[in-house]
Amino acid sequence: MEKARDVDVARLLVVAPNFKKRLSGVTSTIIQLLPLQAQRFPIASLGAGLPDFVPRMRWSQVFGLLKRPQGRAFRIWHARRNVEMIGGIVMRDVFRAPMKLVFTSAAQRDHKPFTKWLIRRMDAVIATSARSGSFLHVPHTVIRHGVDLSGFVPAADRGAAVAEAGFAEQRLIGCFGRVREQKGTDLFVAAMIALLPRYPGWTAVITGRVTDDNRAFADGLQAEIAAAALSERIRFLGEVPDIKPWYQRVSLYVAPSRNEGFGLTPLEAMASGAAVVASDAGAYAEMIMPGETGAVVPAGDGAALLSAIQIYLDDPALAEAHGQAALAHVHATFPLEGEADAIQGVYERLWQGVTS
Questions:
Q1: Distance between CA 73 and CA 356 in Å, rounded?
Q2: CA 265 to CA 131: how far, in whole Å?
Q3: C-alpha angle 7/125/356, rounded to 5°?
Q4: Does residue 355 carry a pLDDT above 50?
């Protein structure tokens, strides 16, 4: 993608702050959505940790938000974290910026009192799934995340892609994301230790960052793998520079999270032609058609996870068939353009009837 040009704050209609430097699911959403939204109307992020192709305003331009934008009576500040809601409230209510506030909530738990206070001060609220919406006590619109179908695509030849990565004559089963207990990495490793000795044609690959506070957790998992003499069959690849080729290499993707906000990885895997076994954390159960594109098991249930995975190891052709069905399902139901359309609808409803 080409590098984003400087933002003209006078024309800027939507600000999508990103007040977290480290990559997260929220950051991934911004990275995917903003370039597409920028083709439709002037939008930019504010903050750090984003690639150059994402339109981004400078901190020195913040005072420009105190003036009305060209063609509208107000801008929209679209927050996705508490600290971003606070920033919007300060801009709107303290500095009197002509601004309406939108918040997207992915949390699937009862919000703390302070978060509820912040949410009540939003002008519009979006929930990323019906389940996350059930924890909101304000009017909201459910808009599920989509996936970039131009970026996540199947390999022309999965076997060749696997061989190129050094796993010739193997089928790969993947588990991607941060390595931590919340993500269920230990459940995946336990299932692989139990299953792979019986299925020599399969190899497991795990990618993702290990933070300092999870180093002992990751080291413990690798020690268990070594004790089972499976270090060549269950591979920790670390944080890879581009995850897309790894999605193209796996025949089966596993998302074993114990809890999740929304969770994009199953969509990315399905868009790459892989069958998916997932827990019912996050919005996973709203993405997968059990028995057609994959399987859904109770979060934290290691035995159920193992059984669901084993079905595909027993029948690789089923994994291929469900992967193809998953690809068609994502194209029909979860295109990124659909998410962008729905979000724009929320913006337009706020703007409707307001004289510029």
A1: 4
A2: 18
A3: 50
A4: no
Backbone angles phi, psi at 249, to 5 degrees: -90, -20
DSSP assignment string, 117-164: HHHHT-SEEEESSHHHHTT--S--EE----B-TTTS---S-HHHHHHH
Mean pLDDT estimate for the chain:
94
- Please report, to the nearest 10 degrees, the dihedral formed by the alpha carbons of residues 30, 34, 37, 38 taken in order: 160
Pairing of strands 99-105, 43-47: unpaired
Amino acid present at 7: V
**pLDDT of 228-254, one tens digit each?**
999 999 999 999 999 999 999 999 999
**Single-letter code of the amino acid located at 316:** P
Q: Using CA atoms, how far apart are residues 107 and 127, in angstroms rounded to an integer?
A: 9
Please give the structure tokens belonging to residue 304.
């159920």
Residue 88 sits at φ, ψ, to 5 deg, of: -65, -40
